[in-house]
Structure formats: C-alpha cells, structure tokens
# Entry
Amino acid sequence: MKPFLKIIGLALLLGGCSPLAVELTPQGQQVQLMQAEILPPNCIRLGDLKAVALVGEHNPYRQALRKTQNKAGLLRATHIRVERTEAHRMATTLYSTALSCSPEEGEPVKPDPEKLIILD
# Structure
C-alpha cells in the first residue's frame, strides 16, 4: 500500500508543476512586434528586455514572447524588436528591445520618467 501512495503523491506533485500558459496583460496586448532591422526615426529605445521560458512550457518561444510583451507594456512601449533568441535543452531565452514609436513620422513619443517602472 505504501508504494502505491508514494506513486500517487509523486504524480500529484509532478502534475502540479507544469507551468500555465502566459496570458497577455492589457498593457502587453498593446505592444506590437517590429520586424524592421533599422530603427525608424519616429521610435525611441526604452530599454533591453530578457524573457526566459522553460522547455516544458507549451511553445516556449511564444511564452517568452508574451512575457516580453508584458514587460514592455509596463514600460509603456508600443513595439518590441527581437534582437536574438537562444534555445537550449532547458529553456528558450528571448532578448529584445522595447520601443516607443509615435504614430506619425514626426517627433518620437517621449516617455514620462515618473511613470516608468524599473524591471530587474
């Protein structure tokens, strides 16, 4: 009976460890992916972002991209540009840049320093 209980306990423990899908926050939903290699003149760089998704997560690249969009949304970014991706046996890491782009070709949108949130 004891081995049976150990197996059931282990199954419950491991079943509870599977990560849930990352949901986009309302701010993250506003962030668009930019494909341009050269930064358009109507955009300013807000900072570098790094997101890690474990291989056990469903579609780790998409999970890392959603994490990046959520972080960029906190910075009030309008766009992100993926700089590079590293995929290993344990995790996928996404390195990107958060950008604030004005809707027109004029001056870039300048962030309000009092509303910026510093991410570690």
About this structure: Confidence is low (pLDDT under 50) at residues 12-16. The CA atoms of residues 56 and 64 lie 12 Å apart. Helices lie at 2-15, 26-29, 60-74. The radius of gyration is 19 Å.
